């Protein structure tokens, strides 16, 4: 049998009064063609479905078809009863319906065999035959039989004679008119017609008067639904007092007294309150949302770096804010700005996590969160983190490097800043803000912070705990003994070797590192590579304006020039240009020339790959040798920089994880006070070197020592003079 014949047999007829739902969308019949139907959805749009397509959808279980749903009979049924299917029946209704079905099926069988007529006389005359066959039919449903006669079995066990015997369960014959009514309803509506709604019978209205109900409800809401969180017993006392006060006023007015509700009545009325409303009024919106928000599988993330969540967390740990070692690069004023002033305090952690693999892609410590820390975290996401793992001697690698597709943040000032939003836009990263006050919308990063607090901070001295009640008599200020270097080491080592290698429930038992490696092995790579240094500089480099001269542009005492910039100067002369500058690498800057951005290298190659802080420290060391000297030879500057970089301080853990603020004001202050007037000239050729030739000796004179710009030194060639001395024969 071919596939076509299979789908031909799965065709069905759609009538004008049928209801049809295709893949969750409800349609109505419009017209029928030779091999197709025209159906209309709820928006009034019509669509043509050929019979083959309908057959495939039906075979896939994506069609709900209710024939005659819009007919008068079905509409009347919906108006008179809430039941539309057997699955909607209550357990008590299903029990009665099975008994009625047994009698109706028995009557239909006897009438078909000619042994019974459909009147009262014949029904009464065949009473025993009907009861016997209906009982046998009901016994075939063993599961339903156990449920139906459960109570009667328990009673029979208590009353059964000790001398044995068997128990016969026999149904009771109803009145003939009842049987005929059941049979007619079965013919008209099918099995669902045998169900009744006797469960709705009875007076379920409150015996309290409207005045009593109003006072009871208002008192319960004022007492129980409050932030004071009164108990049910306390609310009952409030209800009694409210009714007592009301009765005093009613007696004075000549009105009848109100009945005081009992304790059980108050408890029952409280239990009828909406659970979400109770939590909302007693514990607040955040708790109610957390407790009652539906939870499924979470956000569907299919590849690494598809969704990266970023947030800040003030760690529950007091550390000693004191600098040593690495931070000898900074002055006291700069250390105070960083928060390393020798006091004790708490740090903020700015972190980013990949929602697919649960790997931490970046984090840094900051004394006060700002746009510098948010951009630093984003930069770390797109940077190789191997050096940080090596710095702590981690046994595992630190995976994750690339440009995220979506960065999800809260509405904090660090993420709402112009610098951060502009950086995301320039890099092509979708920046998604979540609703304020709902940390569940960033559940992945919030869960990481909680895991860190529970698993790491409890092992460190100086823990402040999350609340005063949990802290008790503990004094973290007296126990604080960890410095910034210790904190950076503990966080990084725990993150790389412990967290990334711990099974995660959100990864179905895999560790974050295993999930990352599995995605890489399966070819499930991130869509974007990490941006280049030039792209980073243009996206979040410091924006500066400088004047172009024949020596190019100068930032922080470093001269930058190239052929493109020289041509721009020749066309326009001295004029102001915009540039982008990164503190991590001052070997180049990006300068806006017309509608393009060109990369301009530093005139002196010793600045390539150099951090700005290293250059500032080198200048301080040179100034300490001779404060008045402004001309420094290139080899002397290079030697000073080599001595500083030999300490490897800028590659250390703390230097990379503590956020530094390189603002326009800081650069201007350094240029005015420390780097003003400094010039770096090329190395001189020694004048005492003589080269012997056939005609005599070649003397290379020294270069001029007058002050000149770096650009002049590059443009002007060195001039040499050849002086020939005659030999003895020539004389």
TrEMBL record:
It comes from the Bacteria. GO terms for molecular function: nucleic acid binding. This is DDE-type integrase/transposase/recombinase. Signal peptide: none annotated. InterPro entries: Integrase_cat-core, RNaseH-like_sf, RNaseH_sf. Residues 300-520 form the Integrase catalytic domain. Residues 706-731 are annotated as: Disordered. PROSITE patterns: INTEGRASE. Coiled coil: none annotated. GO terms for biological process: DNA integration.
